Amino acid sequence: MAFRYATAWPPSEPDSWPDIVQIFALTPGNMFITSTQRDGSSDYHDFGMAADGARDMDAAGEAAMRDCAQFLYPFAEYFLELIHTTPYDTDNGFYVKNGEQVGPDYYGPQTVADHRNHVHVAMSSAGARDLLTVLRGQAGPGGPPDPPAGTGEVWGRDSSNHDWDRGPMNLVAERADGSLFHVAKVGGIGPTEGGRYQDPFFAEAMRRGMAAGFPVLGDYFVCCPTQYASVGEQVGYWISLLDQGFPAWRDHPMIHQLDAESWEAEDQGYPASWQDCRDLLTEFSARVPTGYKIWYAPRRLYDDAPDIGFDIWTPDYHTNGRGYRELYPGDDDFAWGAYSGSGRAPRIFQYASDALMGDDPQCDANKFRGSLDDLLALTGRRPTPTTRPRDEEDEMPQGMVPKGKTASEVAISSAWDRSVLSVGCTRGKAKLRIGEHKVDGEWTFADVTVSADDLRRHDMPPQIQIDMRSVTRIPHSETDKMDAPVTWLLYYAPE
């Protein structure tokens, strides 16, 4: 049977590496992307149709790469190439060519040896798109449809560095299981955190959350009494951690949780007073106008606190390791009751610490009181799509910004009103000058820098009455060779 994703050589298809990167995000093994489009390689990488994922060459890393390749191997019919060599005698490596599983002899000893330290995937744009749909479920990218306004239950999870050795941290499976928000620890400051602390997994949690299509993401910051660090110091550090770990945080619907707990340092003045919490959230809100700011306030510590002007996230665990819906104690549970001092009822209820969500067996499970539209309204944003529409009749244009020492312009003639321009790269960084031409003849320009540190594409806000857009490559420094691969695409803005 003919391979349905066959391509001519040399290929002339649109780049598929952005979708391949998304496929890697859906596999086990926590792959790091080490290569996408690269010039002069005379293979699929040269044409933007391949990506490589890797881990450290130690026992854990080798097992992780094996798990990734083994997961992909049954989907051979979608691949132009899949190549990975393992050190184990329990398999024969994982090799695919043009939709067929092949043995190591097909590629030869040199290629087999060269692919011990990474997993190589090459795909056509159609093959990558179709496999993404399969891996994300028949409901399409992002898992099940979001509940309509006013209906549906809104479940979510919070995680920290402690969760990464408890399960696979498969956020795609979590999202497909019905979770609509994921909040990860970004760090903290104070004696219980050993001074300043940056959660080493926050950035990866946000990357996976974006890949899984969560409509709402979030962060939580562990605060300390202001006798140890001032309000300004703590808020400034909080914002700096967000900028480092998730540069796109200002452009996505976000929950910002202030985590106020006693931990083990009650003899050191813990927990932070309600006045400290009020001042910290007030200062953060003044500096960050968007996002849903909420106070994680255990009832045993803050039940008698007055209303500080922010919603409450309350914990009260019901645990025994079952599915998160089964563990939920109900909308009439005591934990939903108003706090005695403020008269304010919690808006989010953290009701379990070992719930099964997707593939992860020990999750902090939460429920938001309200609809998804209610939560989005509190963040001050609507979710931004990260991929173009998949309806073939409505396919939007895409392409690559030419590379070289001379800046080049790509004119994007558009008949789509309120379309969104998205640009991004996965190697190095690039500075671009975005132009928008209105039907009245006026051009406006804005500069934006994109980098491999931010795997999410940079989305330019939708504008009305635009009939032309341009992307011009400009140097970001005197030594910039402008050789990082940069792609652009258009998609429809949400209604």
What does this protein look like?
- With 495 residues, this protein is an alpha+beta fold.
- It has three domains: 17-136, no CATH class; 154-379, TIM Barrel (Alpha-Beta Barrel); 392-492, Sandwich (Jelly Rolls), CATH 2.60.120.1380.
- 22% of the residues lie in helices and 28% in strands.
- It has an eight-stranded mixed β-barrel with strand order 7-8-10-11-12-13-14-15, surrounded by four helices. Strands 1-2-6-3-4-5 form a six-stranded antiparallel beta sheet.
- Strand 19 and strand 20 (443-451) form a beta hairpin.
- The longest helix is centred in the middle third of the chain and has 15 residues, at 231-245.
- The radius of gyration is 24 Å and the shape is globular.
- Mean pLDDT is 81; it is low at 138-151 and 383-395.
- Provide the β-strand percentage band: 25-35%
What form results from the Cα inertia axes? globular
Q: Please tell me how large the radius of gyration is.
A: 24 Å
CATH superfamily of the largest domain: Glycosidases
**Mean of the pLDDT scores?**
81
Using the coordinates shown, work out and report the CATH topology of the largest domain.
TIM Barrel
Report on the biggest sheet.
Answer: 8 strands, mixed, barrel
Beta strand count: 23
Q: Give the CATH class of the largest domain.
A: Alpha Beta
Oligomer: single chain
Given as residue ranges, the uncertain stretches (5+ residues, pLDDT < 50) are 138-151, 383-395
Task: Give the strand line-up of the largest sheet.
Answer: 7-8-10-11-12-13-14-15
CATH architecture of the largest domain: Alpha-Beta Barrel
Structural class: alpha+beta
What share of the residues lie within helices? 10-25%
H/I helix tally? 12
Q: For the record, give the distance between the C-alpha atoms at the N and C termini, rounded to a whole number.
A: 43 Å
The tally of structural domains comes to 3
